[in-house]
Design brief:
The complex is a heterodimer of chains A (about 200) and B (about 250). Chain A is mainly β and about 200 residues long. Chain A contains two helices and eleven strands. In chain A, a hairpin with a 5-residue loop joins β2 and β3. The two termini of chain A are about 15 Å apart. The longest helix of chain B has 14 residues. The relative contact order of chain B is 0.15. Classes of the chains: A mainly beta (about 200), B alpha/beta (about 250). Chains A and B meet through loops of A and β3, β4, β6, α5 and β11 of B.
């Protein structure tokens, strides 16, 4: 236990809510991003997976929407300490997108419109754990939250769920992304409180 | 986007350190600056933040992040805390803490929304309300180093009473040559103020910012709606989005 802060008292909170360490509950949906919100026309939007051998798989907006979608309800945990529970999304599972992708790579470097990047082990994107999400609570995903489409990897801190996603490069060796190069953890498991390098 | 290592630290764990409150200043009726002393503090870059952890007697603890507002100064640093009426941490920091009390601090953190004095490009700072906090660290760092890098600050607040660091920003301090400060008011203005009370406009950025061809680095910090507006206006004026760094707080409001 840390140093007790004189005069600080815990608040009564619902007993059935279990949050990762250091997180607090929020009802609203905070916005965080490193720069201006990019404006991306759906007609020009594309998503690509480029394998370690250079093979490129590409989906247009229309092709993405033609794929079977899923409607996950997930908890979000942001490294800036807020957690938001039971959020509803619609999108395409990465398993669906990877169905015809041949790769022996273990890592993915995810790219966004606006040049943001983040690295994720490939196994964390597969097995029903990640989506390219384009709807939030039944509405088109708002630009400030990553619309038209964002990656959704709810078991990792939210900076891994790249907004304005446009593709990923598959890598045999891990390569840090944007925040990971600026002191944040390479993996980012909220339950192990992997916020910063060395955690 | 540019990559830069965080100085002084390569995968070494950031540890929690005890911070003792050694000074207090009221900035506005709802915001207070706290001066902390942490023996062996590593120093920080202007724009970085720290995590603050509070622990209750029953073992419950919670954390929040706050921007550092001072220039690097040995073992001391400052945070300015705006009291959120139903907040859990800010009312404690802003109302309950007394000189000599301890909290735990972890940091400094962040390597993107930072101004490095070696970067001599012109700087545009655009702050809304309490979003001035990390921008003030940049102004104070510039001053403390005697930097001549041209700085312009556009600071939007509701009323004159809501402006942080009022005396410091309204009266140039020694070392502030080359810093231009513009206040904007959204609810009501001082008497005789030429600009009517209204939100940030494109014309404000055009009149008081830098032309895009000067290629300034733009730091925009404030509530989400303010930052969305300001960043979009800067892009519309022709600033390269890669030179616009943002830090937002709060929900979208939609």
């Amino acid at each position: 236990m840390g140093i007790v802060s004189r005069g600080f008292h815990s608040r009564a909170r619902p007993a059935d809510v279990k949050l990762p360490p250091g997180q607090y509950l929020t009802e609203d949906f905070p916005v965080l991003s490193a720069g201006p919100t990019p404006s991306i026309a759906r007609e020009e939007w594309e998503f690509t997976i480029t394998t370690e051998s250079g093979t490129r798989h590409r989906w247009s907006w229309r092709e993405l929407l033609a794929l079977p979608s899923e409607r996950p309800t997930v908890d979000l945990h942001c490294v800036t300490k807020w957690s938001k529970l039971g959020t509803g999304w619609e999108g395409v599972s990465l398993d669906t997108l990877f169905a015809d992708v041949e790769t022996a790579a273990e890592f993915a470097l995810v790219h966004s419109y606006g040049d943001y990047t983040t690295n994720i082990p490939l196994e964390d994107l597969l097995g029903g754990e990640a989506w390219i999400a384009y709807q939030y609570e039944g509405e088109d995903l708002a630009p400030v939250h990553g619309g038209p489409a964002r990656l959704l990897v709810p078991h990792l801190y939210l900076w891994k769920s790249a907004k304005w996603v446009r593709g990923m490069r598959l890598l045999t060796e891990d390569e840090p992304g944007f925040w990971e190069s600026l002191g944040y953890h390479d993996y980012g498991d909220p339950w192990r409180e992997q916020r910063y390098q060395g955690d | 986007m540019a990559r830069a290592a965080v100085p002084g630290r390569l995968k070494a764990p950031l540890t929690w350190q005890a911070a003792r409150l050694v000074g207090l200043r009221d900035e506005t009726p709802s915001a207070r600056t706290l001066v902390f002393d942490v023996p062996g503090w590593s120093g920080h870059l202007a724009g970085q933040h720290v995590d603050v952890r509070l622990t209750a007697e029953d073992g419950y603890s919670t954390q929040r992040s706050y921007s550092l507002t001072s220039a690097p100064d040995g073992d001391r640093f400052e945070l300015t805390v705006q009291r959120a009426p139903d907040g859990e941490v800010s009312p404690y920091l802003a109302d309950v803490m007394e000189i000599g009390d301890l909290v735990e601090i972890r940091g400094p953190v962040g390597g993107w929304f930072v101004w490095r004095p070696a970067d001599i490009r012109p700087v545009l700072l655009v702050g809304g309300g309490s979003g001035i906090a990390p921008l003030m660290a940049m102004i104070r760092t510039r001053r403390s180093l005697g930097s001549r890098t041209p700085f312009r600050l556009i600071y939007s607040v509701r009323t004159p009473e809501d402006g942080y660091y009022a005396s410091e920003l309204r009266t140039p301090q020694p070392g502030d040559g080359g810093l231009e400060v513009t206040h904007l008011y959204t609810r009501h203005t001082p008497e005789g103020w030429p600009r009517p009370a209204k939100r940030l406009q494109l014309a404000d950025l055009q009149a008081h910012g830098w032309p895009p061809e000067f290629e300034p680095v733009c730091f925009v910090c404030g509530p989400t709606g303010f930052v969305e507006t300001a960043a979009a206006q800067l892009v519309a004026l022709g600033h390269d989005p890669r030179r616009i760094r943002t830090e937002r707080f709060g929900p979208t409001g939609d």
